[in-house]
């Protein structure tokens, strides 16, 4: 157990270093900025490029970012390790290592599903996909590596009504939510190997969080994924354009998130079922 905890902490530190360095490729611009100067790094800017001068590196900010991402990584590992094993068992170092390795690529895979959702549902209501991109990879209209980072971007043109535009906006998070339900049902109904279960659970967790994060975080000044992604509550805006009242939409988001949480967290599901059974057996 102590070895697993040490390896988890060490893995989180390594991941924190890698993630903080990776953010040096992601722009972090204030509301007003000088066109010749680009700032990179999250949550604090640690790399500043200037067309008229050398690149500046802020070591102190890089250190703070490393500590932040290491803490986030450790918290994520703890949460993910709890959903990768059956109730009462303990995750071993191999499982935690796989979580470290798979976390980013599977997150980008679910991000691709999100953008494909915009494309599919937008096309279904009369739009036309003109551009799609994940991270540095342009997917449509051609496969290419780009210089600018975008967590996810899908442009759908030709939408003529508020309803069609709103439906396209909802389509991204709606698709990842549906995908999360399907993955959960597959895991419950099929006999899968432990590695396959792990892959599906990590992807499912991203799908579970996609909708509530996109609704809540942009309304409190954060981005879709705290520091990355969209800065407006895209699904909520789409629901309003479609004509869904806010209370109804918030209720739907709450119920689907609650349902997925019970499916992916077996211990919570067992406690809930146990509580229901105890309530049924109470004398009248």
Write up what this structure looks like.
The chain folds into two domains: 1-83, no CATH class; 100-284, no CATH class. A three-stranded antiparallel β-sheet has the order 1-2-3, with no helix packed on it. The protein has eight helices and five strands, in the order H-E-E-E-H-H-E-E-H-H-H-H-H. Helix 4 (162-189) runs parallel beside helix 7 (246-264). It is α+β, with helices and mostly antiparallel strands and 284 residues long. A hairpin with a 6-residue loop joins strand 1 and strand 2 (47-50). Residues 86-90 have low confidence and may be disordered. The chain has helices at 2-22, 59-83, 93-124, 162-189, 194-216, 234-242, 246-264, 266-281; strands spanning 37-40, 47-50, 53-57, 128-140, 144-157.
In short:
With 284 residues, this protein is an alpha+beta fold.
Task: Report mean pLDDT, rounded to a whole number.
Answer: 85
Order of strands across the main sheet: 1-2-3
Q: Look at the helices and sheets and give the structural class.
A: alpha+beta
Order of helices and strands: HEEEHHEEHHHHH
Overall 3D form: globular
Task: Write the SSE topology.
Blueprint: H1 2-22, E1 37-40, E2 47-50, E3 53-57, H2 59-83, H3 93-124, E4 128-140, E5 144-157, H4 162-189, H5 194-216, H6 234-242, H7 246-264, H8 266-281
Antiparallel strand pairs: 1-2, 2-3, 4-5
């Amino acid at each position: 157990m102590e070895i697993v905890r040490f390896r988890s902490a060490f893995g989180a530190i390594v991941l924190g270093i890698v993630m903080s360095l990776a953010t040096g490729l992601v722009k972090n611009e204030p509301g007003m900025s000088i066109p010749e100067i680009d700032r990179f790094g999250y949550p604090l800017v640690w790399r500043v490029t200037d067309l008229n001068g050398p690149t500046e590196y802020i070591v102190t900010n890089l250190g703070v970012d490393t500590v932040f991402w290491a803490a986030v990584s450790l918290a994520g590992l703890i949460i993910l390790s709890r959903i990768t094993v059956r109730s009462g068992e303990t995750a071993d170092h191999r499982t935690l290592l796989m979580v470290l390795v798979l976390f980013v690529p599977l997150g980008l895979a679910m991000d691709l599903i999100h953008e494909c959702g915009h494309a599919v549902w937008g096309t279904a209501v009369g739009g036309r996909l003109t551009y799609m991109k994940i991270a540095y990879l342009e997917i449509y209209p051609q496969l290419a590596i780009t210089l600018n980072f975008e967590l996810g971007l899908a442009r759908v043109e030709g939408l003529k009504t508020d309803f069609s535009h709103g439906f396209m906006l909802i389509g991204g998070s709606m698709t990842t939510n549906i995908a999360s339900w399907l993955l959960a049902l597959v895991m419950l109904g099929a006999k899968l190997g432990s590695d396959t279960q792990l892959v599906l659970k990590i992807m499912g967790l991203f799908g579970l969080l996609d909708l509530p994060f996109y609704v809540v975080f942009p309304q409190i000044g954060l981005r879709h994924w705290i520091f990355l992604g969209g800065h407006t509550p895209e699904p909520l805006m789409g629901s309003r354009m479609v004509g869904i009242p806010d209370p109804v939409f918030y209720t739907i988001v709450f119920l689907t998130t609650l349902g997925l949480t019970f499916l992916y967290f077996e211990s919570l599901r067992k406690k809930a079922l146990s509580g229901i059974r105890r309530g049924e057996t109470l004398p009248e």
